[in-house]
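Data deposition worksheet. Section B asks for the primary sequence of the deposited chain exactly as it was used as input, without tags or linkers unless they were present during the calculation. Section C holds the resulting structure in token form. Section D is free text for depositor observations; keep each observation to a single sentence. Incomplete worksheets are returned to the depositor.
Section A, Depositor: J.P.
Section B:
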Amino acid sequence: MVNMTNQEYRKYVALRCPPSPLGRDMFRAFVSGGLICALGQGILTLWGLAGLEEESAAGATSVTLIFLGVLLTGLGVYDRLAKFCGAGTLVPITGFANSIASPALEFKSEGLVAGMAAKMFVIAGPVLVYGLSASVIYGLVLVLLGSFG
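Section C:
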């Protein structure tokens, strides 16, 4: 192991790491995230035109976007899209679907229970735990405030 001072190490890293194209990355994330959201709006409109009421159309849109996210993950398209688009593909519902489907596909060779079922919530698990916990606390606060008012 080579002994370097902090300053020498910074110089070494600066030589080895290319500068990050921040402007390009932000533009790609903005455009791709916007396109996913526009797709969601288009799907919502189509469900409305199919005769669903607004609340039902919103639910059907969520299910459709989750299905598309998982399908594209299974086909290997979502990962390639994420490499090009960056953070724009983290739009909540499709990114969340991808975060559940990816580990499930990766560990399916280890079996349904020990592999796929156990690993599919590795990334999404903390989101679910904290999301559900926050909703329970929020509900309790509303109940308590409602009983005093």
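Section D:
The CA atoms of residues 69 and 94 lie 5 Å apart.
The longest helix spans residues 22-49.
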